[in-house]
């Protein structure tokens, strides 16, 4: 399979956030193209939505490599952050959640607006589904362009499994990957958790991954 690339779960090996390591599929193509089309966006506010391990952080790192900017964890947004963003055109708030300081967030949105900057929020659900105490935030949340990373299709599942195992220096037959794809949930997080599980069993048994190990991990 060509262009095997997607964010992989990091346990004991190095993550690679390079552009060529991101696997573009129907599930994430819109988001990938949107981010690469900067600054030709309909709005200056973008909300990138996806399951855990769907590649949001990978996309953000690719974006920062190309277009520069600053990335701040939502839980770490503070007064100092508002000073830090002044010299940047692109601001990324990662892992947005309902625990964010609403007053600081509202001030951040105003700065983005006034200075014609760009803001990308990453989250597991759309910002419009959050209910804020500040009415102004509920209104402003509707101004975001939403970009959703959908559940992985067969091609992306195949790439995820193959790349994840390859990074662990594990070779596996295509038939085994097809077997796995037909039996696990279409979830990025659960896919990575499953790969970790079969790798752990393989190491414990001191045997290469085979149908028996896969079935054991599946609980069959």
Q: How would you sum up this structure, described in words?
A:
By secondary structure, the chain is α/β, with parallel strands linked by helices. The chain contains nine helices and five strands; from the N terminus they run H-E-H-E-H-E-H-E-H-E-H-H-H-H. It has helices at residues 29-36, 56-67, 79-84, 102-114, 135-140, 154-167, 174-181, 188-205, 211-218; strands at residues 45-49, 70-73, 90-94, 118-123, 145-148. A five-stranded parallel beta sheet has the order 2-3-4-1-5, with helices on both faces. Helix 3 (79-84) links the parallel strand 2 (70-73) and strand 3 (90-94). It starts with 28 loop residues before the first helix and ends with a helix. Residues 1-18 have low confidence and may be disordered.
List its salient traits:
disordered N terminus; 5-stranded parallel beta sheet; 220 residues; alpha/beta
Radius of gyration: 20 Å
Largest sheet: 5 strands, parallel
Give the SSE order as H and E letters.
Answer: HEHEHEHEHEHHHH
Strand numbers in spatial order across the main sheet: 2-3-4-1-5
- In total, how many beta strands? 5
Spatial gap, N to C terminus:
29 Å
Structural class, from secondary structure content? alpha/beta
Unreliable residue runs: 1-18
Helix coverage percent? 40-55%
Strand content: 5-15%
Arithmetic mean of pLDDT? 88
**Tally of separate helices:** 9
Question: Which overall shape is indicated by the principal axes computed on the Cα atoms?
Answer: elongated
Short synopsis of the structure:
This protein is α/β, with parallel strands linked by helices and 220 residues long.
